[in-house]
Design goal:
Strand content: under 5%
Pfam family, one: Complex1_LYR
Shape: globular
Largest sheet: none
Helix content: over 70%
Number of domains: 1
Protein name: LYR motif-containing protein 9
Family: Belongs to the complex I LYR family. LYRM9 subfamily.
Number of helices: 3
Oligomer: single chain
InterPro entries: Complex1_LYR_dom, Complex1_LYR_LYRM9, Complex_I_LYR
Radius of gyration: 12 Å
Distance between the termini: 18 Å
Structural class: mainly alpha
Length: 78
Amino acid sequence: MAPLPGAELVQRPLQLYRYLLRCCQQLPTKGIQQHYKHAVRQSFRVHSDEDNPERIQQIIKRAIEDADWIMNKYKKQI
């Protein structure tokens, strides 16, 4: 189960970035939202020089899986 509808449509890094920021908006508190927004931005800076299409797809897949895990983690706590 994806954290938000549309995860299956994410193919490019910019789409992933927007998708993950929308996921952050669904988190329960402003502090948690800001923490994960910062983590998303940092991750994009770290991987900004990646040019291997296969590696980019691996990163996208893993980021969506991680977002799913985080969304489920906070969903259970509420």
